[in-house]
Amino acid sequence: MIRNIISEREKDLPFFTIGKLLKIAAEDKKIISLGPGEPDFTSPPNILRAAKKALTNKETHYSPIAGRTDLRKAISKKLKKDNGVDVTEDEIIVTNGSTEALLLTLMSIVDPGDAVMVPNPGFLAYIPMVEILSGVPLSVGLEEKNNFQLTTENLKDAYIQKKTKSIIINTPSNPLGVVFKKKTLEEIAEFAVENKITILSDEAYEKMVYDDEKHISIGSLNGMEDYVVTLQSFSKTYAMPGFRVGYAAGPKKIIDAQKKLHLFTSLTAGTVSQLAALEALNGPQKPVEKMVKEYDRRRKMIVQRLNEINGFECVKPNGAFYAFPNIRTFKKKSYNFAEWLLENAKVACVPGTEFGKYGEGFIRMSYATAYDKIEKAMDRIEKATKKLK
Ligand SMILES: Cc1ncc(COP(=O)(O)O)c(C=O)c1O
């Protein structure tokens, strides 16, 4: 019998309840799931055709470690045009989803004991990734009273002078749906320059912005070229999460370090997937607009319905595809409330605490689910929660 087979590193990682709840939701056909963090749409047909063509053309070989040159050139063009981020193809690395881009970036800059500021509530991979690298995650609280905009006070509260090496920001945000204003980004930029720290800007939901909101890449702000690694994904924008393509773009030193690490981790992103991603950038953008329009329709409905149901309070999200209502008046912990909804309303949601301790008192509801299903879920929740009040 081999003793202590599993590493302490692995044992220390948190267990997420999201898996358990979503498993129950998947097994019981009566349950409507507002759990998923991925588009309910299939990838647009031109992207599927490109993938098929890649297979027909026997594109079954490795690509360069940094990613295909044609794709990196297209990304460089896109970043300049859409984001105002000026990088050459040598300052870009294509990865297996932006998850890998995030990990490679952290691996490139975090030594054991270094601290990384992470948004809390925030995407659930941030804290474990820092911990895997024996770094110290510092939670930057995002508060409902500020409509979840990050403030200088939030930054100062989390910052530890000698240790902090980096900060992760995510706009539009999972799970909050907040889109950072230019003023917020300028404050973060100023803070990063003053303290000489690197910003990891996770922009996976960049195209999902609503009303008059605009997505701004912090890497486009004056003088930020040396401070920002921009992380992007094809998963949400083009509804292609299963293809697993994302990328990091930023200072050459950091991207070169990632290329070196890529050789020892996953080597490259899949060639067929990269060719599908190339088509996504070069092909028509109408399908993206259509999907965003539909998310917007659902967003308006879900937020209105939630705020009409006694007990919920929902800040209107301006981005991504999540609502993050406050459920404190129900006097249940987030996890217990999500479990209660699953049993009593047959609706699956994700407890806010999955996204960090500041998520207590909230639940996440994804509207990457068909409109009529969301409507039905709201009816059920309205009926069920009457019993709780
Ligand atoms: C904020 C955020 N960043 C990154 C990712 C990872 O996406 P992918 O690895 O598919 O690019 C997700 C996925 O849910 C996310 O919500």
Task: Give an overview of the whole structure.
With 389 residues, the protein is of the alpha/beta class. It folds into two domains: 8-43 and 287-386, Aspartate Aminotransferase, domain 1 (Alpha-Beta Complex); 60-282, Aspartate Aminotransferase, domain 2, CATH 3.40.640.10. It contains 13 helices and twelve strands. The chain has helices spanning 8-12, 18-27, 45-56, 69-83, 97-109, 126-132, 152-158, 182-195, 252-264, 271-282, 286-308, 334-344, 371-386; strands at 32-33, 92-95, 115-120, 136-141, 164-170, 198-202, 228-233, 246-249, 322-323, 347-348, 350-351, 363-366. The strands form three sheets. It has a seven-stranded mixed beta sheet with strand order 2-8-7-6-5-3-4, sandwiched between helices. Helix 6 (126-132) links the parallel strand 3 (115-120) and strand 4. Helix 4 packs parallel to helix 10 and helix 5 (97-109) packs across helix 9. It is globular. The termini are far apart. The model has no long low-confidence stretch (mean pLDDT 95). Pyridoxal-5'-phosphate is lined by residues 37, 97-99, 123, 170, 174, 202, 204, 233, 235, 241, 246.
Task: Provide a compact summary of the structure.
It contains 13 helices and 12 strands. The chain is an alpha/beta fold. The chain folds into 2 domains: 8-43 and 287-386, Alpha-Beta Complex (Aspartate Aminotransferase, domain 1), CATH 3.90.1150.10; 60-282, Aspartate Aminotransferase, domain 2.
